[in-house]
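Summary for the steering committee. One of the milestones for this cycle was to obtain a three-dimensional model of the protein with alpha-D-glucopyranose bound, which we needed before selecting residues for the alanine scan. The sequence and ligand used are listed below.
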Amino acid sequence: MRSTRLKVGGFALAIAVILSLTSPPSSHSQKRENVEARINALLARMTLAEKLGQLQQLDGEANGNFRPEHVEMVKKGLLGSTLNVRGAQRTNQLQRIAVTESRLKIPLIFGFDVIHGYRTIFPIPLGEAASWDPAAVERAASIAAAEARAAGVHWTFAPMVDIARDPRWGRIAEGSGEDPYLGSLMARARVRGFQGSDFSAKDKVVACAKHWVAYGAAEAGRDYNTTDVSERSLREVYFPPFKAAVDAGVGTFMSAFNDLNGVPSSANPFTLTDVLRGEWKFDGFVVSDYTSVEELIKHGVAADGAEAAREALSAGVDMEMVSRLYNKHASELIKERKLSQQTIDEAVRRILRIKFRLGLFDRPYVDEALERTAIFNSASVAAAREIAARSMVLLKNDHDVLPLDKNVRSIALIGPLADSRQDMLGSWTGDGKAEDAVTLLQGLKSKVPQTRINYAKGCDIGCDKPDGFEEALRAARESDVTVIAVGESAEMSGEAASRSSLDLPGRQLELVKAVQATGKPTIVVLMNGRPLTINWLAENTPAILETWFAGTQAGNAIADVLFGDVNPGGKLPATFPRSVGQIPLYYNHKNTGRPPDANNKYTSKYLDVAWTPLFPFGYGLSYTQFKITNLQLSAERIPLNGKLTVSVDVENTGKRVGDEVVQLYIRDTSASVTRPVKELKGFQRITLQPGEKKRVEFLLTAEQLGFWDRQMRFTVEPGEFQVMVGSSSEDVIEKSFEVGSNPY
Ligand code: GLC
């Protein structure tokens, strides 16, 4: 029965309007008004060439240096920003030219990809998300911001908040996986970590929510490929983490490369203006992705550079990264009345607004002494080790073969990733240095110095030749236990790194099988940037630890977990499929009219592989055991705008202290449009001592039950809902409740 529906938020909006009319202007709003006045005064003095200069970002050298051309352009006020230029002394040098030699002395904004660390590198974002610990992720971003700002970087092109349901897409490594709720909390945590409450602070940077939008829906998981996504899926799956970033105060967005429903994301008025500015009131600026403005020509929506510039600027892309079409064509477009001066002025205004909020007009330089103390200090390195261990996911541990005994006499450490510094950093390594990275070999040696470590690489990561297998088998035979580090190289994920297979590369599996056949207990340490089809490992090896690319302190963090100094508590942020043929495979799928049924041929499944995942979303084990019981709801029925308290008992029934991530899912069993079989709406990572039992509570609001109906209106519909609570998306206990047809 769907008679009434509540346009959620109407009541709250009325209250907000009344409050805004009665409360005195806060210092915050006074500060903002002052900035707007300063922008207006500056805009009035700028020539068209100087305005277009603010819309231009150019690329520095890979080593962080600026180019000679930049100096000339900055002197003339024709360049507003660079990417990749970094280092306190260098940025101050170019900034000094901008603020002392140009006519209007407008400071530059220095941007850089500080994705999971600046010099101290944390786990790749997919790994950080696997911690299900927003506070830890915020802390990592905060450390990254402090290091980056000390190096003269004002702006990070992060967080990447693209939802990814296809692990063939290499950039799944850079995001928070497949779920909008987890992705939203991670987006919020990273924006807060990077920006703090005031990103003019000397240890904060302005963040950039990217890639706007639905870049992760690339067909066939092939990077830069076409995306075709319904508006409902956009609004329910791909938008939420970006909205969370806006709600957290993110200062900039980056438009994406992909063709979105026929209108490329870097020229899409619906997403860039109607939603981002019209609905969400975002007042920062949008930068294009790298030459994504010029690529509108290849997309076939612009006949030439002038058309591409007009399309992108008019749609709402304020700053052009690397291509130079705005500068080249804007004046003629204005003369031909194809582009308004107001559009240009509005783009300049947004960019100046962020420069003012960064404090660059008042404090354009960075304290060069800061670099020596703020970057790669012991506190940051210790945090990297702690957060890396929290990101790890125990996928299997038969007969408690883990944790290892510190008195073990000998360990065979085998595999192409066992002693590879660079690969520990993953993709997008910022200013991270391979020589800083601790490998697993080093981590084991420092953890158990009295243990003999027999190291044998076995093969390189591509593993197309078995030349080193014999040496590896010898090491295994001579040792009490074997640890084998397999997976991908850092370059096999990240940008432009799609894979058509999710198997271990080359003959790595053959190496594992041969080592396993020696009969010694074999612990698999996975290092990878995406879910992998590790079916044989899952069925035949006793223990598997997913470590992602764990960053600068990888080796020490993995050793902490392998020897039980840290009990792993991470959970999968993305589904591990059994076969690449199952993709896209994600937990919050629709039920279909013929849900899979092994006893009925005519239902939705495969002939040659089970329809279920190898490891489901939200899955992860511990060295201890937990029991989740006694699910209670505060009511059997709530009003249309009501709230429900959901609670469970969580008990540590094992012998070790450990963390459990208690997850809350809902299902709308019948609505005016089909709804997912479950949706994550809450989680808590809690620590319990052996034998300890704790009551965990969640508050579920009616708004969290809402969706976009057939008329694309956000609504909560009355009817039956299921609540599920558990330790993964598949291991849940459930109850039902009703939402009534009337508000309070
Ligand atoms: C790249 C990426 C984007 C990055 C930008 C600057 O092509 O798509 O994520 O921030 O260019 O490096």
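Key point for the committee: Residues 1-9 have pLDDT under 50 and may be disordered.
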